[in-house]
Amino acid sequence: MASSAARGPRCRERSRRGRSGRGSVTTGRSRSRSRAREGELRELLPLRDLDALDHSEEGVEATKSQKKTVRNQKPKSSPSDPNGPAPAETEGCGEPSRTSENGSVPPPKAPGKRGRKSKTEMLLLKLSQDLECPTPEPICVQKMLGSSEAAEGLETTPGGRPKRRAAKVALLYLQELAEELTSVYQPPAPTEGAQEPDPERIQKKRRSRRRKEEETDSDDPARDADFVPSKEVLLQAEEEEGSDAPLSEMSEPELEVVRGHGGRMSSSGRSKPQCRGLAPNGFHNSIMAPVEKCSSLTCSLRDQKYSQWEFPDWIPLAHKWTCLSESEAAPYLPAEEKSPLFSIQREGIEDDGVLYRVNRFNSLQPHEERLDMSFFVGGPVWAMEWCPSPEGSAASQYVALYCHGSMEETHSVAGLHGGPALLQLWGLGTLQQEQGSADKAGLAYAVAADHGCVWDMKFCPSGAWEPPTTARKHPQMSRLGLLAVAFSDGKVVLYSLPHPGALQRSKRTQVKDGSFHKHVICKVQCIATLQVGSIQAGNASECGQCFSLSWMPSKPHHHLAAGFYDGTVAVWNLLTKSLLQCVRQPDDSLKLYPFRCFLAHDHAVRSIEWCKADSNFLVTAGSDRKIKFWDLRRLYEPINSIKRFLSTEVAWLLPYNGVTVAQDNCYASYGLCGIHYIDAGYLGFKAYFVAPRKGTVWSISGSDWLNTVAAGDITGELVAAVLPDLAVNPLNVKRSSDRRFPVYKADLLPCSPAGSEGGEQVLPKTRLYSEMVTKSYIRFRDTDLRSFKNFPSREPMRRMHTQEVKAELSLDRLQLESLHKVRFSPNLDSHGWLVSGGQAGIIRAHCLVGLASGVGRQLLPERRAHFSNLYGDKPGSPSPAEESLLLAE
C-alpha cells in the first residue's frame, strides 16, 4: 500500500495529461465521476496492475495527441510486448482484438466520440472478470471482448455497439409477415413498354442492402431511434415492392384506396382490382377501383333492401284503360310533328354530312357499331325516368317521359294550373353492353292526363315488375311498374302500368269515332291521388305545385316524399289503413293524405332525394339556395344546412355520405359553377369539385353500378365523371380532369334554306322556334365510348377543356341545343346505358361500354341464373305481340 500511495501522484499526473491529449470529449460531470472511480481503483489495484495502467495510458497518449511526450519516465513498449498496448481496431472492420499472454485484454484505441466509458471503468470491469466477480458488466465494454467472448454474450457490431434485440425481433416478424403476403400477392400484368423485374437483381439488391446496413452500423446516437427507417431504405423498399408500371398523379386518399385494393385477396375470396398501371379500358386502375367496389356493394345492398313483389292489390285492370281515338287524342299530342334538322358526327367515323328530320314518335335505326339511338318525342323534355326491372331478367327496357305541348310553352311556378298532358312510355328493347338493341326504339303507349304539366316522376324501386307472360285472368293485366307523377295542379298521381303486350291483347274498348289512334293513347283511372292537407280541408292545395318526388328506396317502399312550392315536404304512407289518411273515392281509387309534413325551406323545394343505404335520412335542395340533410326521426332541425348556389337537382349515390349537386350559374362564383359533391356533415369533408360548367346544369344522374355521375347543361354538352372513393377525404384529389369525359356535344349551327350548311350565315337572335328551326340545325358530336386509351389527347377531350375555359353563352336566343334531363339506367342488365333529352325534343340513348367493370360482367350471368330459378319458364323477354308493337310506327 505504501508503494501504491507513493506512485499515486505520478499516475494521476499522467492520467490528467492523457485526458488533456485526447481533447475535451466528456463533460465536466463525467470527468469528476471517472476521477472518483480512478481513485477507488488505485486503492484496490496491486502494483503490477498500476504499471499496466501506466503503460496503457502512455500508449493512448502517444497515439492520440501526436505530441512530444515525456519518454524518460517510461519506455514505450513495442506491439509484441505483452505489457504494452495492442494495436487499435479499425472502425468498421470485423477483426477481433488481440489478447496478451496472461489473458488480459489491452484497451483498444478509443474513438473520440461522446458518451464512451473511461479507461479506468473498462480496467475495473476487466479486473472484476478476472476475479470472477458477479457484478453486472456494462454493455458498452463488449467492444473490448474477442470474437469468442462476444459470441457467448450479446452480439455486437464491428463498431462495438450491441445490436438491438427488440428491433431485430420486430424486423424478423415483419419479414415473415411480408413473405406471407407476397406469397398471396398476384403481381399486376406488365403494361406495354414496361420491363419485368429480374428476381436475381432483386435478391442481389436485398443482400447488398443488408451488408451495407451491417457495415455502416455505428454508435451514432442518431441511429438509436428504433423502428424508424431512413429515406434510402424506404426508397429501396418501394423499388423492390413496386411494379415498373407508371403511376399517374394521385393524392393521399387515392393512395390509401390503392393499398386497399392492391391485388390482395378480399375476405370473400374474390380478387380485388389492381390499382397500379392502366386498366384495359385505358383509365388508370386507381380510377376504376371505386367502380369495382361500388358494383359489388350495390349488388349486396340490393339483396337486402329490394323486394320481389310489393303492393299486390294494385294490379292494372283492362276496363280502367280506355283507348282514345284520333280526335280524342289530338288535344294531348305535342304540337310539333317533325323534329328540327340534326346531324350526328361520331368520333373515328367519317362524317357523311346527312341531315335527319324525324317524325313525331319515330326513331332512327340504332348504329351498328356505336349502339346509340335517337328518337323524337314532340316537345321540350322536362321529366324522364327508367322503369326498374329485376336483375338478370333480360327484359325489354322502358323509359317514361313527359314533354311540353309546344316548343315555346312556359309555365308559372307561383300558382296552380291544369291542362292536357301526355305521359309517354318508350320501349328500347333488350339493351346489353356489347350488342345493344337490334330494333328501333318505339312508343309503347301513352297516358293522357288533365292535371297540367309534369315536373317529376318516379317509379317504385322494386317489387312492382312481373314477367310479361304472367297468367292473369281478365280484366287483370301483367304489371310493368308503379309510377308516381307530380303535376302542376299540386297533386301526385299514382299509376299502375301494364306491360305493352298485355295492353295490346286486351284492347277491345269501343271509342266514339270508331277508329283508334295509330299509337296506343289511353285515358287511365289512377290507383291513388296523393294530396297535401287533410280530409277537412278543401280541394285547393295551399302548398302550391309539386316539383320533386322520391320513393322510399328500401322495402316495402310504402313511403313517398314530395317537395312543394312553399318549401313544404310531405311524406305519405301508401299502405295506410287510417281513416284520417285514406279515403275511398266513388271510382274505387284512393285519396291519400300525408302522415308527416314539415317546412324544409323558405321557398320551393327544387329536388328531394332519399338515402339509399338508410331510409331515415333525406336531402332537400330549395330555391332559397340551401341544401339540407334531414333525419326523419327528429325533424325539428336539419342534420346539416349548407347555403351555396341555386341547386337544380341532387343525386345521392349508394355508398357515400353526401350528394352530388347540379346548380344554376346565377349565384355561382366565377370558376365554381358546375357539379359539386357535398358531404352530409358527418365526416366533415369539404365540397369536392367534380366538373366545371360554363352554363346552368339542369339535370344530374348517378349510377350506383358505375360510381359515375352524368350531367346535361344549357350549352348542350353531356358530361360524365367517374367519382373517386368519397369515403376518403377527396379534398386533395389531383387531376380530376382525367376522371370526366364528354358523352356528346350538341351545337346549334346556321344553315341555308335548302338545308346545306352555310358558314356565312349567323344564328338569328330570336326566341321563336319557328324562326330558329328554319335557319339552323343541331349537330351532335359523339365520343367513342368503347375505350378511353390516350383520352387526354383525343379531340373530344380537348374540345371539352376548351369549352370549360372559353365557352360563350348567347342568352338572347332560344337555347334549342339545351339538355334538360339526364338519366342513368338503374338496372343491372342495362347499367351502362344513359338517356338524355332537352329543348329540341330529341331523346338520345348511349352506352358507356368502356366503363363496364369486371364485377358487373361476373354478376350478370349469376343474376340471370338466379332469375330463371325464381320464375321458372317465365322469361323476361318480350312476347311476339310486344315485339310487333315496338316495331309499329
Automatic annotation (TrEMBL):
Coiled coil: none
Bias type Basic residues, positions: 65-74
GO MF: DNA binding; RNA polymerase III general transcription initiation factor activity
Comp. bias intervals (Basic and acidic residues): 35-58
Domain of life: Eukaryota
Positions of region (Disordered): 1-123, 182-230, 870-889
The entry's keywords: Nucleus, Phosphoprotein, Repeat, Transcription, WD repeat
One Gene Ontology CC term in the entry: nucleoplasm
Subcellular location: Nucleus
WD repeat extents: 598-633
Subunit composition and interactions: Part of the TFIIIC subcomplex TFIIIC2, consisting of six subunits, GTF3C1, GTF3C2, GTF3C3, GTF3C4, GTF3C5 and GTF3C6.
Summary of the function given for this chain in its UniProt record: Required for RNA polymerase III-mediated transcription. Component of TFIIIC that initiates transcription complex assembly on tRNA and is required for transcription of 5S rRNA and other stable nuclear and cytoplasmic RNAs. May play a direct role in stabilizing interactions of TFIIIC2 with TFIIIC1.
Protein's recorded name: General transcription factor 3C polypeptide 2
Gene name of the record: GTF3C2
